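Posting this for the archive.
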Amino acid sequence: MSTAELVNIPNKEGYFGEYGGVFLPPELQKIMEEITAEYNAIRESSEFQQELKSLYQHYVGRPSPIFFAESLTKKTGGAKIYFKREDLNHTGAHKINHCLGEVLLAKKMGKKKVIAETGAGQHGVALATAAALLGLECDIYMGEVDIKKEHPNVIRMKILGAKVVPVQSGLKTLKEAVDEAFTAYVQDPVTQLYAIGSVVGPHPFPMMVRDFQSVVGYEAREQFREMTGGKPDHLVACVGGGSNAIGLFTAFLEDEDIKIYGVEPSGLSFKPGEHAATMTLGTTGVIHGFKSYLLQDEEGNPLPVYSVASGLDYPGVGPEHSYLKDIGRIKYETITDKEAIDAFFELSRVEGIIPALESAHAVSYAVKLAASLPADESILVNLSGRGDKDIDYVTAKYGKDYGVIDQ
């Protein structure tokens, strides 16, 4: 497949190469077909697109700016580092981009409620925000481990009127939250819509979330040209499910001269249960109704995963990422917990920007990459979220090591 054809995937069955599709019971396949038909209709609707564009501009605060990190660049040496500031969006992350689209879709379909999973809480906050704005009920499923780690976001969701449902099964993190949210959706797919939080799940969600998030890359392409007169030489974004990364990458996939890097968590080690490096160590499997790379055992069951960043600890990954890895268009790298925490404090203290722990993985890799490149090259990083949600957890666990609290 040529790079020019990359923007035309998935096919009508929802496949990106061999990945994606719908692996669900027949009754739920019918529901997915209805959602696909509704989405395909409204995506061509000028009324829908204009309403979404207006919300992006006047509610979210788009376009988010691009910032040249001059101090970090000087300290690092090598290539120039730029950030696409999705952390400045209303609700503090890229998640609001697709949540507004999904809730608008749900409302036009006559749904009364949206439900979803959340790990770091950014998707939960964004969905609760969109639901409050557009007048729908909202249930958010969140693992108990993540509820403790991301307490500020839990409070935000409740203030916004959402019902936060603690998940106590398994490892009590993102994968289990998806399991229970999906179970709740199956019980009533008629009056509610499962607003999936990334480019994962059965078709049409990987396509739909990508489409809503692609505003990031198309904005960045124009902004970078206006700012520098050209294009970035390298793109970097963190990858859990992969929505912020696909959001940036989509607009540049046809540019073969631009190198693209997805960064996933190697956590504490590459031992099972101590990382979430799906693209690095995973194999093809099926999870949550779609086919992708998956960290799995010999029976095909998802392995336990871990990351210091709650939004990255998922054993699967978006099917489009799986396809782009196979054809060699994107290179997937890993960053450890320690490297991410170092980057969290480095960006905070050098540029005055406190990043989300998820985004800190991308920052860390970008710094490594910049140091290896000549000064006339450039790196554009998707700074996908801000770190307000993480400061309590980071302070409690790492505060003494980094001088935030007294020894």
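Residues 61-92+214-398 form a domain with the Rossmann fold fold (CATH 3.40.50.1100). The chain is about 45% helix and 15% strand.
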